[in-house]
């Protein structure tokens, strides 16, 4: 009988479709190993999830705080840097106004101060000098430079000596009873009268002349003559 | 314990439920694996593979009415997936067995002299002699009774390929059946 010519497929379905077998224990053992592995994985996954669940918000909060702090520090540092850079880039202007040079046209001339040595010899005022009217006004009056520059206000004003004649008169040295020598300048007769300073009356008269006005001075002299 | 309860227990990793599911379905799944595998050792390995995958796929199991049918179908497709894993054996065996079977000859033996169990063994042996790809197509088409569209869709092959390979598988199965019946008839004589 030729099976190729028959409908053997129907017969195959009848015989093989309800085919059943008995599984050996080895199949179940291999399946059990796989299931145990899966169960252990699931348990470990669950335990990991439980253990890691409280850490998640902490880690998130920590990282967030770190980011905020770092960004705040970065921004503040950046702003400080930008301020300092602006300050350095802007050229500093002097708040003090430049002092103007003293004008050359000014009549006041600045003479360097010469150190004055203390003269051990006492100076006796001559009668010529005493006749010079003393007033509180300065000898040289020059307000032009003061108006121009206030900074020169406190400069010492040195009187011009060009108009003063040099004293060429002879010096007279008197020696008093105490042994103290006094030097006086003897002026020419044409210019004044020589007064003996050793006389008390003369001294008083001189002092009066120097301290009192002219009207009183006349009376004082008259009294002393009497 | 109903099938639904068994499946629920398996989904919750209950060992007792898993054991009951295995006891209930192992004969049926073992029969499927015997048809698709090429030997006893291969059948056991395939059955283990099918069960492992079935436990994972039980989440998608439908309602009670279609449950047994769904389990059979998933067992078949997992058995085919097991065969597809061994690419070397799958493709090389296809070529060599075709050349061997081309020259096979033998006188046919009347099946009437054989009882059902003997006939089943002969048919099973003829099926095992097929290459894996032909065995899959022959089993799916003639034994399991699946529609060609479903087979083409699941195996991702062209319709022409399916037709040509099925014809070749059918021819080879008959050749093997003739050979085994002839050998069996000679032994009986």
Number of DSSP helical runs of chain A: 7
Terminal-residue CA separation of chain B: 51 Å
Name the poorly predicted regions of chain B: none
What do the pLDDT scores of chain A average to? Answer: 64
Classify the secondary structure makeup of chain B into a structural class.
Answer: mainly alpha
Beta-strand percent range of chain B:
under 5%
Biggest β-sheet strands, sense, barrel of chain A: 2 strands, antiparallel
User: How would the global form of chain A be characterised?
Assistant: rod-shaped
Q: Tell me the number of strands of chain B.
A: 0
Plain-language structure description:
The complex is a heterodimer of chains A (226) and B (189). Chain A is 47% helix and 4% strand. Chain A contains 7 helices and 2 strands. In chain A, α6 (200-211) runs antiparallel to α7 (214-225). Chain A has a two-stranded antiparallel sheet. Chain A has a domain at 44-76. Chain B is an all-alpha fold and 189 residues long. Chain B has 2 domains: 3-84, RNA polymerase sigma factor, region 2, helix turn helix motif (Rna Polymerase Sigma Factor, Chain: A), CATH 1.10.1740; 86-188, Orthogonal Bundle (Arc Repressor Mutant, subunit A). The longest helix of chain B has 30 residues, at 159-188. The radius of gyration of chain B is 18 Å and the shape is globular. The N and C termini of chain B lie far apart (51 Å). The model of chain B has no long low-confidence stretch (mean pLDDT 82). The chains are: A mainly alpha (226), B mainly alpha (189). The interface between A and B is large, with 29 and 46 residues.
